[in-house]
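Sequence, please.
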């Protein structure tokens, strides 16, 4: 790691860790949604909305700290990109839950549980990785595994689309379900964006 003569604002590390922990909360709510009765989904969506608001607050805190800090632990554009990508993950997960409720989906298609399992694992890995930003050590396996998970998510997404278009669903139902699985796929992409940003930061700091 590069030797620095100037002090750095270190609160960013704690804020990134808090943001990632909140994403784990969101992934658990997604898992809870899978096994919930239709009547319980609105309450889960409300808790997810609260988690998404907490994520927004965490992101705004990072941006505020960025704007008020003279010295940052790594490049400003990377801090902004990392915070934005973490925020995107929560936004997509909250949107997926909200759509399930708004569209009054009675049964999600088989394969969605695999999408959510991938997101849950990516959330755990991301939360475990954020504290390592302090030292930039033990991060390589993190971004390799998240990229592997994103490739897995792509395959699951393609299989889900093939299932939705096999003629067993009516057109309106296809549109509703496709929007949900597409948003979950965007969440997987956002996890990869976070991992790629962490890799970029680690390379710059090495």
């Amino acid at each position: 790691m590069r030797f620095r003569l100037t002090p750095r604002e270190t609160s960013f590390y704690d804020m990134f860790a808090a943001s990632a922990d909140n994403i784990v909360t969101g992934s658990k709510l997604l898992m809870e949604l899978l096994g919930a009765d239709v009547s319980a989904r609105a309450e889960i969506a409300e808790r997810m909305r609260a988690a998404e608001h907490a994520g927004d607050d965490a992101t705004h805190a990072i941006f505020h700290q960025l704007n008020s800090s003279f010295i940052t632990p790594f490049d400003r554009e990377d801090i902004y990109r990392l915070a934005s990508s973490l925020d995107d993950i929560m936004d997509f997960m909250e949107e997926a839950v909200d759509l399930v409720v708004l569209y009054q989906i009675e049964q999600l298609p088989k394969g969605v549980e695999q999408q959510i399992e991938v997101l849950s694992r990516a959330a755990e890995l991301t939360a475990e990785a954020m504290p390592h930003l302090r030292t930039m050590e033990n991060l390589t396996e993190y971004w390799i595994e998240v990229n592997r998970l994103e490739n897995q998510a792509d395959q699951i997404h393609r299989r889900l689309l093939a299932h939705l278009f096999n003629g067993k669903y009516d057109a309106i139902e296809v549109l509703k379900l496709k929007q949900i699985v597409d948003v979950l796929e965007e969440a997987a992409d956002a996890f990869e964006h976070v991992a790629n940003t962490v890799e970029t930061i680690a390379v710059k700091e090495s």
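Helices lie at 11-35, 41-68, 76-102, 112-129, 140-164, 171-205.
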